[in-house]
Design a protein that fits this description.
This protein is mainly β. The chain is 0% helix and 36% strand.
Length: 91
């Protein structure tokens, strides 16, 4: 996937996973009750800081905090741009 954005420093561009539409038992969740996804795929990675190399790479699936990052819409898709420190785990 080619996105025309390059994060700076220790920031990453994340494409959030789709929100769940049904529960495990099959109950359909309405749009008003859907929770914000907390995982996604890394689309682009910055160069890091001096004496700090990035640990995530493009294509990694990551888990991040509920309110992490800044939302942006690019070419009709929703993305989050956040610091690597906001990422909790690589799945």
């Amino acid at each position: 996937m080619s996105v025309n954005i390059k994060p700076l420093s220790d920031r990453v561009l994340v494409e959030p996973a789709a929100a769940e539409t049904t529960t495990a038992s099959g109950i359909i969740i309405p749009d008003t009750a859907k929770e914000k996804p907390q995982r996604g795929t890394i689309i682009a990675v910055g160069n890091g800081k001096k004496d700090y190399t990035m640990t995530v790479k493009v294509g990694d699936t990551v888990l991040y905090g509920k309110y992490a990052g800044t939302e942006l819409k690019l070419e009709g898709k929703d993305y989050l741009i956040m610091r690597e420190d906001d990422i909790l785990a690589i799945l």
